[in-house]
Specification:
This protein is α/β, with parallel strands linked by helices. The protein has helices at about 20-25, 30-40, 55-65, 85-95, 130-140; strands spanning about 1-10, 45-50, 70-75, 95-100, 125. About 35% of the residues lie in helices and about 20% in strands.
Length: about 140
């Protein structure tokens, strides 16, 4: 069984309340349940974690890497555009990483067009709302 980490960064705990016209009305808890349910059908196990603190996210990546996880579904939130440290943790982990964004970051403000993660991810999913997480899971479950 493949173990996959589901990691969500700053402010994603506010999904369903924060700018629903941009991020939708589905909560992070609802997304996690959908991904966990779908993972069971893909012979995968999901461990979900969210933090508003960069160091906690980095610590979790290290932990998952050391525990033999296969992959990482990562929505870095606002850290997408700023965090070299998060990028370095992903690289050092060796985890196959799919970067996920609920909104299409390329159809938004200019500062959101640059991702520190995209160039080191095996895939990027943006603009598919909560469905992007399920696409990332499907991809990682089929990846060897």
């Amino acid at each position: 069984m493949k173990k996959i980490g589901l990691l969500n960064g700053p402010n994603l705990d506010r999904l369903g309340k924060r700018e629903p016209e941009v991020y939708g009305s589905v909560t992070l808890d609802q997304i996690e349940v959908k991904v966990i349910e779908k993972a069971a059908a893909c012979d995968c196990a999901i461990e979900a974690f969210q933090s508003n603190h960069e160091g906690a996210l980095i610590d979790k990546i290290h932990q998952w890497s050391d525990s033999g996880f296969h992959g990482l579904i990562l929505n870095p939130g606002g850290l997408t555009h700023t965090s070299v440290a998060l990028r370095d943790a992903v690289v050092a982990s060796g985890l196959k990483t799919v970067e996920v964004h609920l909104s299409n970051i390329y159809a938004r403000e200019d500062f959101r067009h640059k991702s520190m993660i995209s160039s080191i991810a095996v895939a990027v999913v943006a603009g598919m709302s909560h469905h992007g997480y399920l696409s990332a899971l499907r991809f990682l479950s089929e990846e060897t």
